[in-house]
Design brief:
The chain is mostly loops and 69 residues long. It has 1 helix and 2 strands; from the N terminus they run αββ.
Amino acid sequence: MTSDRMPPSRGPVREEIHNAQINTAAAQSHRCGMTHLASGRICLLPERHSGSCDFRERQGELRSDSLEA
């Protein structure tokens, strides 16, 4: 069964969230989330920031509620 209706929008979709190099929890918290694959460090700057990433050490398992700061 095909529907012509589009699903309700929940805001802009961040296509890069589907990239293995992006930390999903960070990206869903509106952070950059880019992961330095060699070290596992994650950029926690705001999404779509200008300039280079600022990679930080992971503190345990990264969860959305730990990114509030």
